[in-house]
Amino acid sequence: MTALKEHFDPEPDKKPVRKPGRPRGGAINAEQREHLLDIALHLFARQGIAETSLNAIARQAAVSPAMLNYYFRSREALLDSVIEERFAPLRGRIFEAFVANADDPVTAISLLVTEIAETAQKNSWFAPLWMQEAASDEALLKQRLHERYGKEERKKVLSIIEGWQQAGRLNPDLSPQLLMVSLMSLVLVPLARLGKNADRIEREMIVKHALALLCQGISVDKD
After folding, report:
1. Digit-coded pLDDT (tens) for 116-159
2. 110, 156, 166, 209: which has the highest count of C-beta atoms within 10 A?
3. Could you tell me the end-to-end alpha-carbon distance of the chain, in angstroms, rounded to an integer?
4. pTM of the predicted model as reported, rounded to 2 decimal places
């Protein structure tokens, strides 16, 4: 993880510094709220959720703690917003890719790999945060995801993978539980090493490599 951080130091996009204080009239400012979420995610990715306080986020965003509390009452409420707005949509798209292609493992896996790569490319915090938090069963992010959404979708995806194996469409020696982690790692580790400087061509190369390794392995077709 240390080696990855040396290659990847996520920084929030530079935006005009906002003056401390609450929004005028007490109205919710959607743009400012999004900015605070982005700041929080970059700090979570850089130093971990457990080590990031609301005060640290406020300092980085150049706002008062009172303003941060105005939008997010606690770190738990902030984390719930992160999950609801940034992770749940991705989780839903991945789930739908498997359900819609329950009879086609190559298409389902290809869609998953592409979706993960595009998400990581658009959001520089995603790869390091996932590797720090979501990859660990004891991490706050994963625990909160399970609390809010349960494990039913994951069980459904694992059932689909097991069905592919039983039907002879997928290598029976693969572990369905490890397959999902492997798929994510094949994409996110190289993207994290490239960092925010990765361009579209590099992202496409990573996707192509991951799909080739997943679908054809290391063998060479001599026909």
Report:
1. 988 888 888 898 888 887 666 667 888 888 788 778 888 999 99
2. 110
3. 41
4. 0.75
Query: What fold characterizes domain 2-74?
Result: Tetracycline Repressor; domain 2 (1.10.357)
Runs of H (alpha helix) within the chain: 2-7, 30-47, 54-61, 65-71, 75-82, 88-100, 105-122, 126-129, 140-149, 152-166, 176-194, 200-216
Cα 176 to chain centroid distance, Å, stands at: 20
Lowest-confidence segment of 15-19, 127-131, 176-180, 210-214 by average pLDDT = 15-19
Q: What is the pLDDT of residue 134?
A: 63
The radius of gyration of the chain's CA atoms, rounded to the nearest angstrom, is 19
Residues shown for the chain:
223
User: Which span out of 3-12, 13-22, 140-149 was modeled with the highest average pLDDT?
Assistant: 140-149
Query: Residue 102 contacts by C-beta under 8 Å, 6 or more apart in sequence?
Result: 108, 160, 163
